[in-house]
Amino acid sequence: MFQVRTDLAVESRELYQENKSQEIPGVEVEQPKMSNDIEITRVKIIDDEGSRLMGRPKGSYITLEARGLKSADADLKDNVSKALAKELVSVIPKKQNINTLVVGLGNWDVTPDALGPEVISKILVTRHLFKMYNKSEDPSMSSVSAVTPGVMGTTGIETSDIITGIVEKSKPDLVIAIDALASRKMERVSTTIQISTTGISPGSGVGNLRKQLNEETLGVPVIAIGVPTVVDAATMTNDTIGMVVKALKSHSEQGSEFFKLLDDMKEDEKYALIKEVLEPYGANVIVTTKEIDKIITDISQIIANGLNIALHPGIDLKDVNRYLQ
Amino acid sequence: MFQVRTDLAVESRELYQENKSQEIPGVEVEQPKMSNDIEITRVKIIDDEGSRLMGRPKGSYITLEARGLKSADADLKDNVSKALAKELVSVIPKKQNINTLVVGLGNWDVTPDALGPEVISKILVTRHLFKMYNKSEDPSMSSVSAVTPGVMGTTGIETSDIITGIVEKSKPDLVIAIDALASRKMERVSTTIQISTTGISPGSGVGNLRKQLNEETLGVPVIAIGVPTVVDAATMTNDTIGMVVKALKSHSEQGSEFFKLLDDMKEDEKYALIKEVLEPYGANVIVTTKEIDKIITDISQIIANGLNIALHPGIDLKDVNRYLQ
Amino acid sequence: MFQVRTDLAVESRELYQENKSQEIPGVEVEQPKMSNDIEITRVKIIDDEGSRLMGRPKGSYITLEARGLKSADADLKDNVSKALAKELVSVIPKKQNINTLVVGLGNWDVTPDALGPEVISKILVTRHLFKMYNKSEDPSMSSVSAVTPGVMGTTGIETSDIITGIVEKSKPDLVIAIDALASRKMERVSTTIQISTTGISPGSGVGNLRKQLNEETLGVPVIAIGVPTVVDAATMTNDTIGMVVKALKSHSEQGSEFFKLLDDMKEDEKYALIKEVLEPYGANVIVTTKEIDKIITDISQIIANGLNIALHPGIDLKDVNRYLQ
Amino acid sequence: MFQVRTDLAVESRELYQENKSQEIPGVEVEQPKMSNDIEITRVKIIDDEGSRLMGRPKGSYITLEARGLKSADADLKDNVSKALAKELVSVIPKKQNINTLVVGLGNWDVTPDALGPEVISKILVTRHLFKMYNKSEDPSMSSVSAVTPGVMGTTGIETSDIITGIVEKSKPDLVIAIDALASRKMERVSTTIQISTTGISPGSGVGNLRKQLNEETLGVPVIAIGVPTVVDAATMTNDTIGMVVKALKSHSEQGSEFFKLLDDMKEDEKYALIKEVLEPYGANVIVTTKEIDKIITDISQIIANGLNIALHPGIDLKDVNRYLQ
Question: Over 60: is that where the pLDDT of C209 sits?
């Protein structure tokens, strides 16, 4: 199995297919025909073999991709929010008066890692209103709370411990965790949203969450929403070298034996070599885009809108734009 | 008793003395001779009578005042950090390898209320290092963690519930809570630091914390550190009217009967009248200074330095300035 | 003439009328029937007498007031942008391919003074595109540039000198200057927009602009757009005292002689007295609202949208929301 | 000549020497023995040949490198500020009562490009005080002004036109321009400061300044101060490939012919190939570090301190730390 770093299930699948040219055993894929602007891929890992080959737990991984998001069209943004809301509704447990805790993972002070906290600042929070008016249900709203637990490097406490403590006190029926991810491809930065029902796996995300956040650890279902905001530097270099070799091959008749050698080299060996070579660049090197500040602002609004519509039954996009921004 | 809004014990005492010209029964006051630049007042409420007259729980209230803080002299700042550290050490429970959780109350998005979160961002956090290296003691460091729980209006959860949840999971021996306060006097904004051993009382602070944070609710001692960042608008107007009346009196021989009437009016009636009259200005009116952004930055550094020195036995101010800023 | 500090022509008029109960000589007022949500007042100072009584230069002062702006309804925001655009079009010189420089006055680092710079960050800037493609006209766009000159306290240079230098190099046909204002009433903070054709008068604004920015000094017409973001502390106290006196009068039969004395006191004497009394609060005291950060974000978008529609003939609100945010 | 993108003269020299193993003709290099912590290299391009080979105008290029800057030691920071001040004094024209305009190039809204504006916010500005008190000299201060002209993409105006306009109005004797740079090596990000006497060359910097800012265009001497805040992605990949090839060579006996081919490939061909291959990553890809927000804060303070000491004869580092931060 190849260990190229990616937080996106669709990329793990792509990598497998690049090598094996077939669908991964134990994995079901569905690509509903949507619009031309938004592409949805639903990857379902159904058995242990699929889990092993994909390098992640069994469950659903839904990806929304909209290349046009880069050029910031308000209609497309609204459509992505609506599509996101629809996919979220399909994975949120069916329960009357569900009580949801939204968790914004990541670090306010590191721009590409600030996605989670930024989404939280735009969530329509209602739990305290239910408490204040002593209500347990409402035709248009459900009970929503929202926290930003920080990262272990700045709190000194495992993020999962903070969330477990808050879950035990506030007793939600569902946790939705938002996090920034790393992609293999710059084109996916800010244009792709992944929903998964398996929680957040250790080591994922730009932040440094250690323990798992999932139904097992929190006692309630955990849905994760992630957006790539950075590209892994080693991955980028690895891909680039592959492309350089390809380009050189077509340019030259010579050295064909060597190209074969490099081509045949196992992906993980090559990746490890590059990792080692990049070490002087420091553990903290990130590859991102100049517009990352603006991108975090935009995509966090899209996700917050999607969540606000999905969680509050009587609220639609018009209301979200009208009352909440 | 007069209900003029102030979060500072020294101001409650001042108000009492303005009216009664004597020390409050049940209250002990100590003003150690320090330097000319920093004035320290230690108010100890020792019985129920003192508690009733001061309008706050029994315990110690230490105030550091340094008028010069406004003009930002680095030496004075360092001296205030050192004085703060010394006073903190005097109220921190004597315990080997004490494990402290620092809590930054308040709202990142409202500048005068962002003091708590700003201090947290400058705290030397070590708890995760003790865990990582599986240590329980260290000659120069103690175990410190730090969180910013947010405010109920943005989380939907009682702040005390969030903190209780985190305390139960991370098991500190001591909680130190930082909050922004309201003063009666603009001259105290950013120049006064109050330490108290009684926790944070309900309704205090710029934020809207409802339940108490104290040893009873959290199960461990709670030390509160507060700095005034705003002046209550009704208080300012009230004080101004008093001064106008005084000024008019000295200007005029006429109307002396009326002045007497206004002077004799009970403080709380006058305050209630002004509150009512100010209503159209909105519940959210704040009186602060133009430099509030810079002031929050400066004073949060002073407090963080004081905490870092007080909590880590092997660290002095030179190290704090050297390694942590 | 009364010297109560206000940057709004409608408030100068109100003050006059409170005292004299008649329209100001030399001033024409028009209040077109709009919608119920937005009230427009067009004050035209037509002669020297009007100028003297209003304490500002001859010219047009248009005020849009929308109390509902506080609760942030997207439709109302859009309507205000459209109404603003319409009023702007009525005062912008009729000229083909007009070249406009938008100037954001004020200080980024002082939240209530950051309105101008915030608007600039949302303006659709095109001048460089005209240059790049060597065009002088376009059916849907006009040439727009935008600068934030800073304030003299941080640049060391008169703001008018910076703007004059940029005007001489970039040769616009029109300057539109945005600034934060002070109002007498908290209810006007963030709900009122003033357009004037007379430039920015010295001493106006929250910032400390000294020299005038007008057609005389810049050589091209200057339109000013201002929004109150603070209330003057002395004004607030003055108004409050007035209301307290009124309230006391109705409560009490006594002291009627004194009330008469206070009532008869000249406005400017009273104001000067309060100013003096407030001195210990410092020159930098501001009275504003807790939500000022959010308010600056919202109102700057409304103004930027209004400007973008007014300046670019082929662009309407849908495009603005679609492409520019 | 090799076209690898670098804004640092020391890197152009390194590249030449990597290929030719000799000093560049027409270039004089001086490396004064300083401390162990700070390395200073003074590169002087003295003739046209040197200018052609270095790809930059004749003049002085002084580089201060302090690897330790990454770990934020206050003493080292102070030493770098002092060393910077000393080097600046050596290139600032000797003139009594010199009047300096400091220009912060770059874009506030793009973190790695915000260095210039951040430095400006920490400069001790005095020009308006000289004007206010009608003074032309002072024993401890010189006249300093400071502006942030923005970038053409957000102003619509050539940055050089804005600066020329301000220079004509405010008539400084000297312009000092601060800008963020790109380096070939991540280890130089935030640890290297370059001073040059030749102004800012077109195309340099992270921003998109087009016309030159130099003595010819502005009429007064221009000193540029730059700090690398990003690494060029193509450069990083190029360097990585070189290192991979080296690593592979030592691992393997095979393919030696190919390695020779790749090794012999001209630097510029290789770079162009990688540029092409990286195109899908987008024009806006940046390679930087996770800590870039903190780094910009720290290094801007170091530079501002250096400038404040160099420009104001009566001020030393103690005063800077005492009064200005």
Answer: no
Q: Is D150 on the interface with C (CB under 8 A)?
A: yes
In this prediction, residue D206 carries a pLDDT of: 44
ipTM for the predicted complex comes to 0.85
CB proximity D235 to A under 8 Å: no
Question: What span, in angstroms and rounded, lies between the C-alpha atoms of A231 and A244?
Answer: 19
In this complex, the residue of B110, B240, B276 whose CB is nearest that of residue C290 is B110
Q: How far is A39 from chain C (nearest CA, A)?
A: 21
DSSP class of residue C158 equals: -
Q: Is the pTM of this model over 0.80?
A: yes
Q: Domain D9-234+285-324: what homologous superfamily?
A: HybD-like (3.40.50.1450)
CB contact under 8 A, D282 and A187: yes
Q: What pLDDT score was predicted for residue B313?
A: 81
Mean pLDDT for A31-40 is 85
CA distance B23 to B54: 11
Torsions phi, psi of A178, nearest 5? -110, 135
Task: Give the per-residue SS3 of chain D.
Answer: CCCCCCCCHHHHHHHHHHHHCCCCCCEEEECCCCCCCCEEEEEEECCHHHHHHHCCCCEEEEEEECHHHHHCCHHHHHHHHHHHHHHHHHHCCCCCCCEEEEEECCCCCCHHHCHHHHHHCCCCCCHHHHHHCCCCCCCCCCEEEEECCCCHHHHCCCHHHHHHHHHHHHCCCEEEEEEEEEECCHHHCCCEEEEECCCECCCCCCCCCCCCECHHHHCCCEEEEEEEEEECHHHHHHHHHHHHHHHHHHHCCCCHHHHHHHHHCCHHHHHHHHHHHHHHHCCCEEEEECCHHHHHHHHHHHHHHHHHHHHCCCCCHHHHHHHHC
How far does the CA of residue D153 sit from the closest CA of chain C (Å)?
8
| Residue C205 pLDDT exceeds 50 | no
**Structure tokens that stand for A325 in this block:** 């921004």
> Which of A147-161, C28-42, D181-195, D258-272 is predicted with the least confidence, judged by mean pLDDT?
D258-272
How many CA within 13 A on the CB side of residue B89?
Answer: 13
Q: Which residues of chain B have pLDDT under 70?
A: 1-5, 19, 71-73, 201-210, 242-284, 318-325
- Give the position of tokens 């242990």: A48
Distance from CA of A157 to the nearest CA of C (A): 31
Q: What's the token pair of residue D211?
A: 């016309």
Q: How far is B294 from chain C (nearest CA, A)?
A: 8
Contacts of A250 (CB under 8 A, 6+ apart): none
Between β-strands D99-104 and D174-183, what pairing exists: parallel, antiparallel or unpaired?
A: parallel
Chain C residues with CB-CB distance to D148 below 8 A:
148, 150
Asked if A158 reaches chain B (Cβ–Cβ under 8 Å), the answer is: yes
Chain D residues within 8 A of A255 when measuring between CB atoms: 255, 257-258, 261
Average pLDDT over residues C96-100: 92
In chain B, residues with a C-beta closer than 8 Å to the C-beta of C184 are: none
Q: How many residues does chain D have?
A: 325
A253 contacts chain D (CB < 8 A):
no
Q: Which of D99, D88, D91 is nearest to D138 (CA)?
A: D99
Looking at residue A117, what is its pLDDT?
95
Instruction: Determine the Cα–Cα distance for residues B144 and B310; give it in Å rounded to an integer.
Output: 11
Give the separation between CA C76 and CA C78, rounded to whole angstroms. 5
Residue C245 pLDDT grade (very low, low, confident, very high; cuts 50, 70, 90):
low
Interchain contact, B153 vs A121, CB within 8 Å = no
Domain extents in chain A: 9-234+285-324, 235-281
Task: Identify the residue among B293, B322, B324 best suited for mutation to test binding to D, counting D beta carbons within 10 A and taking the highest.
Answer: B322
Cβ–Cβ contact A272 with D under 8 A: no
